């Protein structure tokens, strides 16, 4: 699946195709409402009339975003003595001693006798790897086209905009588009499956706040808290000490108006109130989870909410869901050795508890969790931490994952080596679009529709990342 990249096109072809296709679909849907229908009613019809594929089973994709840029060099670490010695020499005081690492034994050995290990804080993830429920994707990052070091240095191919910038690279990771993008590939994935869910509102659910990853062309991310849906308190009690204010606000969810702005405001308010009530009822009726989650771990409580929502899938009538959770604090230019281990403990503890919950619910094969982050970090030390990089190693977890394996290409461990664009910043050998394509295909997206989700995917070989058995 390889096409010629056109750097001059103003809109990535996949996104443009999605816009055209969905516009035509909604145009047909609107004919039932009549040409004189108010614009607000048109928006409602447009928002409820999407689906690319009809499915009968349940699947959920969960993105765990590590804000600030996780130091992959102290997460997945060279373990064989030769490479660990080279690693320790370059990293200096930042290096994790070899005798503290968990050595990994993959089903398919790495080339040239190389071995990798996990940080000592990743106890739960080590167990998942050994059990075949987790794989490691090596040196993945945003790319527009496959890029060699010579092409990078010559700037002879399109490169991701504003490399090494937090905001810009968060956007390119989550949307495949520059900062300011209005949709992400998680949301565009949701676009294709909206009508498979009884209530399309629950297709893309964010437990950690707004993120472009979860916004689609039509799918709207529904934000909840770790303890459940957020109530519109102004409509359920006194507002500013006045019950009259609350009563007046409640009428906004019931009133009708011929004015398009008033009608659209009413529709959105009504949707919010109904979604909160429906999700609250669904959670209350769902089986109670017995899997323990650490209540002091914010990532764990977010994933616990995801598990509770999955437990309510029958009551909610959902067949396809995309979830987003996150943990911050990874921008460790300073105090890396002191602070990074605690962050890794939180990640391992949260993901392993979540996987155990999917086993308890009987959906481990139907739920896939993956990590993502702004970018990787430098192999070299700045004295007390590491600086902004590019490629990074990430985890994919789930009962359907072809686990206990490394996917992608193991980078050369050397400053000024063939994979280094400076200070040990890795030039990615696997693109985010390739990772996203493997996940989207598992989710049920036909190959012909992948460019609708990932606008640069046609530039890459999709046969090199067999994440699922």
Structure write-up:
The protein has helices spanning 13-30, 39-48, 81-91, 123-130, 149-154, 166-175, 185-191, 243-251, 260-285, 298-311, 313-316, 336-361, 432-443, 450-453; strands spanning 59-66, 76-78, 102-103, 116-118, 134-141, 204-206, 222-223, 320-327, 367-373, 392-398, 405-407, 430-431. It is of the alpha/beta class and 469 residues long. The chain has a single domain (31-230, 318-459), classed as 3-Layer(aba) Sandwich (Alkaline Phosphatase, subunit A), CATH 3.40.720. Strands 1, 5, 6, 7, 8, 9, 10, 11 and 12 form a nine-stranded mixed beta sheet that branches. The chain has a three-stranded antiparallel beta sheet with strand order 2-4-3. Helix 2 (39-48) packs parallel to helix 9 (260-285), helix 4 (123-130) packs across helix 12 (336-361) and helix 10 runs parallel beside helix 12 (336-361). The longest helix has 26 residues, at 260-285. The radius of gyration is 23 Å and the shape is globular. The protein starts with 12 loop residues before the first helix and ends in a 16-residue tail after the last helix. 46% of the residues are buried.
Task: Please write out the topology.
Layout: H1 13-30, H2 39-48, E1 59-66, E2 76-78, H3 81-91, E3 102-103, E4 116-118, H4 123-130, E5 134-141, H5 149-154, H6 166-175, H7 185-191, E6 204-206, E7 222-223, H8 243-251, H9 260-285, H10 298-311, H11 313-316, E8 320-327, H12 336-361, E9 367-373, E10 392-398, E11 405-407, E12 430-431, H13 432-443, H14 450-453
Parallel strand pairs: 1-8, 1-9, 5-11, 5-12, 6-7, 6-8
Antiparallel strand pairs: 2-4, 3-4, 5-10, 9-10
Helix pairs in contact: 1-2, 2-9, 4-12, 10-12
